[in-house]
Amino acid sequence: MRTRHLVGAAVAALAIPLTLAFPAQSHGYISTPPSRAALCDASANAVSWDCGDIQWEPQSVEGPKGFPSAGPADGTICAGGNSRFAELDDPHGGAWPTTPVTAGQQLTFTWTFTARHATSDFEYYLTKPGYDATQPITRDNLDLTPFLTVPYGGQQVPSTLSHTATIPSGRTGHQVVVAVWTIADTGNAFYSCTDVQF
Fold first, then answer.
1. What's the rounded Cα separation, in Å, for the pair 5 and 109?
2. Residue 18 predicted with pLDDT over 50
3. Do 157 and 178 meet the contact criterion of CB atoms below 8 Å apart?
4. Residue 15 pLDDT greater than 70, yes or no
5. Separation in Å, CA 30 to CA 69, 112, 132, 159, 163
6. What domains, with CATH codes, occur in the chain?
7. I need a labelling partner for 124 at 20 to 30 A (CA). Which of 2, 28, 43, 140 fits?
């Protein structure tokens, strides 16, 4: 009987570090064109600075839903208001790698999901003309009318999902797309920032 208790205790002791090493739930992020989280992913390592925790879990940029009237505070939008991922809000002097775009172009955003949540919708926002890429993202420097909204009616997402949008006009230089994946059955959403160059 005692041996059985010792074996049970040993299994429990081993399970705790494994539970801490791997988050119980993972979620999703824009993989192409590469979002800031994708650029920081340890397997991509496409930036020259230390990305902190986000390099190990690019899919975990989760914050309160209701954007833009609610959600993360200004200056913390790219990290979903999560201080663990504050590196995503640092503009690095405008040095985030960009994807070239032109106004009116069709651009496909592909999400990679590691947990298939029931989904309300996806919304895509773009910074306003004259945005200064050396500054963190705030509501004041975003066009708060999404240039693409994809309703999802509470369905679960597949492992990957793509949306094609027409890039708005009236921008030049370095701009940022803020994509919001709103979860249907929790109070949260996932935030993904992608830098583009007109």
1. 52
2. no
3. no
4. no
5. 23, 6, 23, 12, 10
6. 25-197 (2.70.50.50)
7. 43
C-alpha span between 29 and 37 (Å, rounded): 7
State pLDDT tens for residues 142-195: 999 999 999 999 999 999 999 999 999 999 999 999 999 999 999 999 999 999
The pLDDT > 70 percentage for the chain reads 87
Question: What is the model's pLDDT at position 115?
Answer: 76
The total number of residues written for the chain in this structure: 198
Query: Nearest Cα to 86, choosing from 122, 136, 159, 128?
Result: 136
Q: Which two tokens stand for residue 39?
A: 């650029």
CA nearest to 135, candidates 89, 193, 177: 89
